[in-house]
Amino acid sequence: MGSLDTERATIGWAAKDPSGILSPYTYTLRNTGAEDVYIKVLYCGICHTDIHQIKNDLGMSNYPMVPGHEVVGEVKEVGSEVSNFKVGDKVGVGVLVGCCRNCRPCEADVEQYCNKKIWSYNDVYTDGKPTQGGFAESMVVDQKFVVKIPDGMALEQAAPLLCAGVTVFSPLSHFGLKQSGLRGGILGLGGVGHMGVLIAKAMGHHVTVISSSDKKRVEAMEHLGADQYLVSSDATRMQEAADSLDYIIDTVPANHPLEPYLSLLKLDGKLILTGVINTPMQFLTPMVMLGRKAITGSFIGSMKETKEMLEFCREKGVTSMIEVIKMDYVNKAFERLEKNDVRYRFVVDVAGSKLDP
User: Fold this and answer.
1) pLDDT given for residue 196 in this prediction
2) Same domain, yes or no, for 17 and 159?
């Protein structure tokens, strides 16, 4: 792994306490090991999960913390046993940077469900050092958790695909919901929700956006290409839409009732939870019994699914809708994200930012 005097110093923007305010922070990376890829970070997306982490909403935060898990960069060095990447490759890193490799999920290539998975940041790596994320000049990452960005894909638009994109692609793939002609619902039109609309439409689905207000109707229908728009408080329209959807991807990262959305599902329909919510949710059992409906969850996606998703997006021309910012705007961006004031994902131009004080 290299000793401290040979490890590279890098600079990132870190939260130092639960205020969640980011500021410059210098730390060391491990030396590039045999299976490692040393990456210069170019862009990094901002995810709602970053807010939970920097503000210790889940009670598990360790500081100083450099967030960021939608990382796009350029390979600058590879270890002696790295065969899939070469210097100059444009690559991505998502939510995970490690797993045990020998449990049932790992052996089934769904390492995101490994009980010993290692997060891109706010975790401890196998060498005992804290992991730090993509709001930084550089990273050292095991090659298993690095993916190539397809040629021709805009790098800044690829960043949100590495979390938001695969978060919707994975359940559609796993639950057999990729065939054209299905009727799907996307609940919540934030970073994950907008990717849900774009990917489901690219699969040939009839897509209904479900939101708490009417204010995103034009964006959903005209900008993203949704087929229908439902306001959840409009009881008449919700009743008219009952039993009409094969699935709903629920992207809302805050507590909300489930019954109104369960009623929209057809027989054997699935409500797929993807938002991180740290309070208990409730539903009445007849809502699922009287239609053999399923409430299930899905967590990001595997490295295999990430590669499939990137290739699918390249083939179908799917790109995220983003607002590119510099690092000195990142605290304001987090404030705006908490107010849902972004269309639809912030992406930090890390390489184009001045990171040091």
Assistant:
1) 97
2) yes
